[in-house]
Here is the input.
Amino acid sequence: MDLLDPLSSALPSVAPLTPMGAKAMAGGALANPPSSAQPAISSLGRALFEAASGTQSSATGRYQDIEDSDLPEAVKNLLRMIRDLRAKLAQLMRELRAVQADDSMNPEARRIRLQQIQAQMSALNGALIAATQKLAALMRDIRLGKEQQMAAAQLALR
Here is the structure.
């Protein structure tokens, strides 16, 4: 089961990073990608990837309570994703407040930056809603007991 399926509909579609020219192989990959091709990924894209991938390089302690729970691994993955999305939303909220309070910014630049932050927050909110709905559906589908459901709900809110 792919946990990102419900998230793909919540996120804006993105055009391919590079055109697949005549050097494309039958499998669709470039035989020798040009050395100048360096994709640019937005901070939102990086945050969503990190949230979705469940990587724990420097965040092992952040997920310790989830890891210690007796929940199925699929539920744990969704809980980590929800926690990361909530953390990113909190970070963007702090950034929004900082931009609003920055009197040194040009009013037009401030307006544009505020719109960018709000768009990022909207995308993350959509992803958070989708992940939460997926968690509820998964818990229902695998028929978690009441205690496990309560534990999952508490972990999702932390």
